[in-house]
Specification:
Elements: E1 2-4, H1 26-33, E2 38-41, H2 49-58, E3 62-70, H3 78-94, E4 99-104, H4 108-111, H5 125-143, E5 148-152, H6 162-170, E6 177-182, H7 183-188, H8 193-200, E7 204-209, E8 211-212, H9 214-222, H10 227-232, E9 236-237, H11 246-255, E10 261-264, H12 273-290
């Protein structure tokens, strides 16, 4: 398995007013300072391919792909959202990426139910059909170009709960759509991480690792916080300091045959995010060593003109 980072460790679009965002390209320098060799794309990174490639190459950073929120459930937007996803997938490929990490876009109504979804508030049958068929179309078109579509279960969207995540995986074609497993969002959404992994672990083709502070989670539910409020209260702990059994998570992934990227995500932190990103990396490296899981090359601590619009829904 290989360890990567993501811009969310420094700049979080789900809590944009939490702190002043680290500018580009400083954020790339901070990733390198924290000892990472690979990252996902972030919204404050340029859409100019030549500049982005030059900056990545200068720092010997690999771009894996990136996240896109899609409103495929909405039939009126289905065709345009499919085309937007294809365009974003092409952009990531032009940067050397191989992943389109897709999620439902959610809305204010769903954000208000973060971590305590009312089962009656879910998608209607035709909305599920739009969502899953749209994902299959995107995955089928991009796979011939070497870009994998992986679906990210995410709090505040219409695929948050264990049941919703399972339904999404059941109703999409595994040849076209993989699972971006995010243990933090599963736990926050009230799901059983290990039950889902036991049944759908073979669908994992990308993984985001977080730890969860159970006390903050309980408070978030009791006080009916939305995702942004919970993030500002630090619902996601540094790896190994929360209540998720990350050792067991890695064992499940290994036993299900997963041997790819582990993206460390510390969405918010009260201390220096670069320091936390470094500590999270070294914690994960040590845990992988303890489990005898082979790792990709470690960096350690040291120092074309096309433009894609990447329009948002």
């Amino acid at each position: 398995m290989k360890i990567a980072t993501a811009p969310v460790n420094w700049n979080n679009a789900d809590a944009p007013d939490f702190r002043e965002w680290f500018p580009y390209p400083q954020i790339l320098d901070l990733m390198v300072a924290a000892g990472y060799q690979a990252t996902e794309w972030g919204m404050n990174m340029p859409s100019h391919v030549s500049r982005m490639l030059a900056d990545l190459n200068e720092r010997q950073l690999q771009l894996l792909g990136g996240f896109v929120a899609l409103e495929l459930r909405n039939e009126a937007k289905l065709a345009s959202e499919i085309e937007r996803a294809i365009e974003v997938g092409h952009f990531f490929k032009s940067l050397g990426g191989h992943l389109l990490i897709a999620a439902d876009s959610g809305d204010r109504f769903r954000l208000a139910q973060s971590g305590r979804v009312d089962p009656t508030s879910g998608l209607k049958k035709h909305e599920w059909r739009n969502l899953t068929s749209g994902l299959d179309q995107i995955g089928n078109r991009l796979r011939v170009e070497g870009v994998k579509v992986v679906f990210h279960n995410h709090v505040g969207t219409y695929v948050e709960t264990e049941a919703e995540t399972a339904r999404l995986l059941e109703e999409t074609n595994p040849d076209y759509v993989g699972w971006c497993f995010d243990c933090g969002h599963i736990a926050y959404g009230g799901g059983d991480v290990f039950r889902l992994l036991a049944k759908y672990g073979s669908r994992v083709r990308h993984a985001h690792l977080k730890d969860v502070n159970a006390e903050v989670l309980n408070e978030a539910r009791a006080r009916r916080w939305n995702l942004a409020a919970a993030l500002k209260a630090f619902i996601f702990s540094p790896l190994g300091e929360g209540n998720l059994d990350l050792r067991r998570v890695l064992q499940f992934l290994r036993d299900q045959g997963y041997n790819d990227w582990l993206v460390v995500e510390q969405d918010t932190t009260p201390v220096d995010p670069t320091t936390v990103a470094r500590r999270n990396r070294t914690f994960l490296e040590a845990l992988l060593d303890e489990l005898g899981i082979e790792q990709g090359e470690k960096r350690g601590d040291h120092r074309n003109d096309t433009e894609f619009p990447l329009a948002q829904s």
